[in-house]
Amino acid sequence: MLNKVSKVVLIGTGAVGASYAFALLNQGIPGQLVLIDMNKDKSEGDAMDLNHGLPFAPARMKIWYGDYSDCKDADIVVITAGAAQKPGETRLDLVEKNTKIMKNIVEQVMESGFNGIFIVASNPVDILTYATWKFSGLPKERVIGSGTILDTARLRYLLGHYFNVDARNVHAYIIGEHGDTELPVWSSAGIGTIPIFDWLRKSSDYKIDDLNKIFVDARDAAYQIIEKKGATYYGIAMALVRLTKAILHDEHSILTVSTYLDGEYGHENVFIGVPAIVTRNGISDVIKMELDATEKKKFNHSVEVLKETMNNSSISLT
Fold this sequence. Notes:
- By secondary structure, the chain is α/β, with parallel strands linked by helices.
- About 40% of the residues lie in helices and about 20% in strands.
- The chain has helices at about 15-25, 40-50, 95-110, 125-135, 150-165, 195-200, 210-220, 220-230, 235-250, 295-310; strands at about 5-10, 30-35, 60-65, 75-80, 115-120, 145, 170, 175, 185, 190, 195, 255-260, 270-280, 280-285.
- Helix 1 packs across helix 9, helix 3 runs parallel beside helix 4 (about 125-135) and helix 5 packs antiparallel against helix 7 (about 210-220).
- It is globular and about 55 Å long.
């Protein structure tokens, strides 16, 4: 299967989608990349522009603008389309308008005969991933949201900066809703092989109160970026490429994605950000972290907020 030419279809060539496509090209991930957008001129222009970079790319790739019929034999369909988060607006504020957009997109994708894996990046990502699962009828393990993969990366970057170590050697997770109720799992966090609270003891310059500030900065980073430049797209694009690579290369990597809980952490019938094993067939297993009492309470609250938002909205998931 790994020798088959991989095909990714991107739906939505706005700032996030275009950045994702550019990052895919730079890393030479899929063999084929198809761009779809309501604005056909935009997607055609992006395809032309990306193709002109192929002589400098690390691998051959066929890139073109297309339509939903191209989804039929795609390995992955990535959805970044939807209304963008505005300054002062939370991700949950986008529920109703983006669910309607998602329903229209998913129905057209499935009409093509698509039988691959969905990656959902549109916000609110946990609810829209759940909606994609319902609208598509695909098995739950083949519908994956970007979840807290970027939040986790932001946390690791900030911790790496604080402790002056490579962020890739920071092992810390943010779980829960991709939004205001997410939480850091400090009880399992570490740098290299050393628990993070032991790192704090290395120097009097390190303060335990700083950890909470670092988390808040990671959680609220999107608000700050949106206020300064209107949207976030580079970080999430890199996160989506990482997820795409994990799937296409059958890596069995552990990433904090939005996936379906079926009893894990004491919850079910919800998509939410938790560490999960990502394979060529989608999610093979949900990693059940040992949470302390405070973390359990916060995670339960995050689940409740997501479920209440879906229950209190007028969206129909049938």
